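This part of the workshop introduces the protein records we will be handling. Getting from the letters to the tokens is the skill we practise here. An example says more than a description, so a record of this kind follows:
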Amino acid sequence: MRAGWTIRFLTALAALISASQLFAGDAVAPPAEIAPLSTDRVVDNLVRRNQERAQALLHSEATREYRVVYRGFPSDRVAEMTVEATYNRPSSKQFTIVSQSGSKLIANRVFKKLLDSEKEAAQSAVSAKTQLNRDNYNFAFVRYEPSNTGGHYILRVDPKVRSKYVYRGLVWVDGADFAVTRIEAEPAENPSFWTKKSQIRQEYAKVQGFWLPLKNESVSYIRLGGRATLTIEYTDYRVQAVQPSAAPSTQAAIQ
């Protein structure tokens, strides 16, 4: 039982993390709007540009550093894993484990389930139900943060149907690229009976003209008094996009 709740809530969090990663930015940003746009226009632009970006990406590779730290009953556990991740359009993800250390329970059972869940979430049938659009989410304006590069729109998102792949919380949308640059959310469904609360924070960075996942931190508070933290750091991106003559004006990457 002690191992079971660990696997269940980390697997669910991984599925949610995977489903939140379809966001990227333009190689060249358009001029910033002088005045903030309406919420409907922001969402329209976000959905349209995400679709363009998904079509523009052919292939991507990255190095990921996974780390799980659990503090609490019955004992503390730590595990780490380095993975080479490869994506090929339209929905193929492959993972090569480079190294792993620490708790054998987490390394052999939890980490592998994390990767399996991400592969599942990438499949077209699942992805269609988790994409950030009006079919799957309700959007509400929270505030606008101006800047000389287009500013950020902060929107509250709530899923229309609950599942382990969707979340509710806040998203930061770049006002020039109309890409999600930050997420602060919680699972729409509790990942496990053993979990009281889970918090997810994901950050993106623009690398060589592309907005890509930079870091994810997921913290879960356990009913027995413990706390588990899952972090994923993304480095060494290599991307291949459709050539400008054959692709939409927006070039971007998915990871």
Notes: The helical segments are 2-19, 39-56, 104-122, 124-127. The first strand starts at residue 57 and ends at 71. The mean pLDDT is 82.
